[in-house]
Amino acid sequence: MVLLFGLLIIPLGVVSVSFIIIQPPMIGALCTLCIVQTAVTIVMVPFSIDEVLASCQFLYRATKAGEPFWRTFWCGGPALSENQTPTTDLDRPVAEILREFVTGGVNFPWTLVASAALGGVLMVTPLVLGTETPLYFSDHISGCIVILVAVTAMAEVARSVRLLNVAFGAWIALSPFLLEGANGAGTAGYVAAGLVLIGLSLPRGKRSQEHYGGWDRAIV
Known about the structure:
By secondary structure, the chain is an all-alpha fold. The chain folds into 2 domains: 1-78, no CATH class; 106-205. It has helices at 2-26, 32-64, 69-75, 94-103, 110-122, 125-128, 135-152, 164-178, 184-201. Helix 5 (110-122) runs antiparallel to helix 7, helix 7 packs antiparallel against helix 8 and helix 8 runs antiparallel to helix 9. It starts with a helix and ends in a 19-residue tail after the last helix.
């Protein structure tokens, strides 16, 4: 069931961003309700990725242990670790439980928060830099994807996804030279924004004490 939940949330986030991407080029305007819905969906993405990974890891181990794949997929199975002593969490303070719920497997390095903010600025470059089309369409598309990548990378198991923004940073820096729509001051702003995004996307950021089995090696 966790896998089905992940298959709903993660692709839905991508589809929602796609709808926002196509609105200015095809419709010429943005839908406020669509933006709100997309923001809510994107926020859910990093919180679902580690659960999907854990489910895949459990299915893999259960299959190797001889458990039927489809029965385990639909009905679950016994714990595969040696330590199966039940523990109670109900006596913990509510604030501690909520904090663990919000930050379990997800954290918010300032570099990723700044990357997402920069993506938001890219979506309003006509107001900030006086950009015109077709360059603005490029900014809008890049900004949407930069935000999606940065928020997704807030999940520790997907932290390496942030490196995609290095490519978008390079494109942002080059775009005013390849597309029409920028003025002189705006061109300098694009170059600076692209270089800043590249710099923000290189550090991994702080990691929690959580471990994800063999996937730890992929968190770079």
